Amino acid sequence: MSASFVAKTISPSGGRLGFLLAMLVISWFAGLALASPFDHDESQYVAGALFSTKMLIFRDFLYLQPPLHAWAYAPVAWAFPTTMVIAMRLVTAMTALGTLAALWAAQRRAGVSRNSATIATLLIAATAAFQFTASVVRNDMLPTLLSSLALLLVMAALRRDRLLYWLGAGLLFGLAIATKLNFAPLGLAVGLFAIANRGRCGLRAAMMLAAGALIGTLPMLAIGAAAPEAFVYGVLQYGAVAPHAWYAANGAGDELSLLEKLADLLKYLVRGPALMALLLVALYGFANRRRPPSPERKLPEHRLIVWMIVGALIGAALPTPTQVQYLMPLLVPLALALGYLLDDAHRWSPTWRYALLGLLGLAAIPGLWGAARDMTVMLRDGSAVIAATRDARWAGDRVRAMTGDDEVLTLSPHMVADSGLTIDPRLATGPFVYRTGWTLAPDRARLLHTLTPATLPDLNRDRPDAILVGYEAGTRNLPLRPDDMLTAYAVRNGYRMLTMPDGIGRLFVWTNLRSDHDQRLEHP
Fold first, then answer.
1. pLDDT above 90: percentage of residues in the chain
2. Helix 141-160 vs helix 68-79: angle between axes, to the nearest 10 degrees?
3. Do 482 and 437 belong to one domain?
């Protein structure tokens, strides 16, 4: 994506000011991809892409999400085998830029002015949810891009009344669902809107939308049919059972109550202008509910926004526990709502117009605060992601030198993905299945190609050359330490420990040889 393209899409003029703005946005998200600390969930997304380069998802290794993100990022893992984590983060940042361009284009297609579309798009980018998902390897930004492109086609369909646009929008929504399930209510809301607005859309449009969604989800359904047991467990059953089991085991089960989930949702909405935008849009809509539409606003986009916001909020509340990234479906209709609100504000008095912009601008500060802090830390101390890549290569060199082989077992595959070592695919889900292993019978765990504490003795048949621990040492709210049993296994079986350069990880290497060369490696 070139800077000139971004300049034409997110700038008021598309000229020199637009180019500078585009370069600032590109630099910000590229820098953020290198500055953000590792997210706990990145382990499974990096591993899913890595293993998808040589194995069939669900059939050969377990995965806890729909498969599209792993498939989309597999070429990145293949092309950048020793810098894949950095590459995946930068690809995520590029996806975020594409999402902003798509949201801007959808607003323009809906009749929003260039200036209003630009401001609304930048406000969406300033939410904590967008800043976070744009900077880590997760499966949230890709479906947001797909849904934003779907919204663009829906806007075109409402104006040209072509069923092919509805089919394309459905295809994009289907692909989004095959990436992240909590985008399903957003696509369903668009379908219900089409049925409810018979004059402009109607049942035919809804059927084309559904047909496109079915086509988009076919790859996911096909892989599910090829490995139904693992697919059902990974995509549906795990999320319904394991989080409750894990939080209860940590004495934090009350954090998953409905009231707590709603409080978390509100907390994440406050981090950026999302909540303020929702309140302002709702208040303005209520105040003008009896006002007839202006001549240029005869299309039912306003009703579509309501349908989509309701669907997105349902999607945000579905996963357990509630996290900031689950707000991403909401940002798609909220961008259009903000664009319309800012356009209407041109008819207001300057005092009210500046008050609106001031409120939204102040509300954006909490959304940017964490990202600005991470950027400051990187400028002072260097990038933790680049350092982790360096450390992974260090680990790979040590394991190969001390064992002559390259197998490693870890609950933190993202910390060793760039090492060139062969990671045991039984822990492709990172710590997540392992830490609630008691919910899986040993025979079923083996059937699902995953490792649990109960099946840990299976390692004795073919001991891994190395075991990396230290990155799953518990938190204040969730103090249980999933790494402890792997550490105990390594110590019990005579592995020798090396401290990782970051001072956090511990690399246990299994070898019966103790040479002077090995001793020097232990204490570089």
1. 81
2. 120
3. yes
pLDDT digits (tens, 9 = 90+) for 147-170: 999 999 999 999 887 889 999 999
For 74-110, give one letter per residue: b (16+ CB within 10 A) or e: bebbeebeebbbbbbbbbbbbbbbbbbbbbbbbbbbb
Residues whose CB falls within 8 Å of the CB of residue 60, separated by 6 or more in sequence, listed in order? 51, 425, 449
Do 363 and 429 sit in the same domain of this protein? Answer: no
Domain boundary among 312, 345, 369: 369
Does pTM surpass 0.90?
Answer: yes
**346 and 416 both lie in a single domain:** no
Give the whole-angstrom CA distance, residue 130 versus residue 137.
13
Select the highest-mean-pLDDT range: 16-25, 115-124, 512-521: 115-124
Point out the domain boundary residue: 344, 369, 394. 369
Token couple for 79: 């092309």
In a shared domain, residues 332 and 407: no
Residues 455-483: tens digit of each pLDDT: 999 999 999 999 999 999 888 889 999 99
Q: Do the Cβ atoms of 271 and 373 come closer than 8 Å?
A: no
301-310 pLDDT, tens digit per residue, is 888 999 999 9
353 and 274 share one domain: yes
**Pair 310, 419 in one domain:** no
Helix axes 16-35, 3-10, angle to 10 degrees: 110
pLDDT at position 332 is 98
Residue 346 shares a structural domain with residue 451: no
Alpha helices in 318-349 (DSSP H): 328-344
Cβ within 8 Å of residue 24, ≥6 positions away: none
83 in a structural domain: no
Residues 356 and 455 in one domain: no
Residues sharing a CB contact under 8 Å with residue 248, sequence separation 6 or more, in sequence order: none
Residue bearing tokens 């967008």: 130
Residue 315 lies in a domain: yes
- In order of 39, 310, 455, 507, the CA distances from 438 in angstroms are 25, 37, 10, 26
Q: How many CB atoms lie within 10 A of CB 243?
A: 18
Q: Could you tell me which residues come within 8 angstroms of residue 480 by beta carbon, excluding any fewer than 6 positions away? A: 246, 249, 250, 435, 474
Q: Which domain holds residue 501?
A: 384-522
Residue 57 belongs to a domain: no
Residue 173 amino acid letter = F
Q: How many domains does the chain have?
A: 2
